[in-house]
């Protein structure tokens, strides 16, 4: 059940939720595309520099790990990835961005990627 998932706010710091999500998504055999401001790699995938707005095709899910105050400069980039859905993890909820996504036909979920995976709702 491979869903290409872009992790916005990816990091190779094991204490961060974005790292745990990358780990669990990989365990559940989803293709991950880590994107963030940090460099390095996570589970064999190079973290792509969000400032370069990397082009990514066939995105199923975007899972957000950047707070609402940091999101506006990336709205167009994230929406332009044309994901089927965006998961707003705890602490990333953003009514304005959720509405923008829904207006483009993208499902906006306020949920936790880790819980969704564990409960087979991903």
UniProtKB/TrEMBL annotation:
Note the superkingdom of the native organism: Bacteria
Q: Which Pfam families match?
A: CoA_binding_2
All copies of domain CoA-binding, residue ranges: 3-117
Q: What is this protein called?
A: CoA-binding domain-containing protein
The organism that produces this protein has a lineage beginning with: Bacteria, Pseudomonadati, Bacteroidota, Cytophagia, Cytophagales
């Amino acid at each position: 059940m491979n869903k290409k998932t872009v992790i916005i706010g990816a990091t190779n710091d094991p204490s961060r939720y974005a790292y745990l999500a990358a780990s669990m998504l990989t365990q559940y055999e989803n293709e991950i595309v880590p994107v963030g401001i940090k460099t390095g790699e996570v589970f064999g995938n190079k973290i792509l520099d969000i400032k370069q707005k990397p082009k990514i095709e066939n995105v199923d899910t975007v899972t957000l790990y950047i707070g609402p105050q940091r999101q506006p400069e990336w709205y167009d980039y994230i929406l332009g990835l044309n994901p089927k859905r965006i998961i707003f993890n705890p602490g990333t909820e953003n009514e304005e961005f959720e509405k923008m996504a829904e207006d483009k036909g993208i499902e906006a979920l306020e949920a936790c990627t880790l819980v969704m995976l564990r409960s087979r709702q991903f």
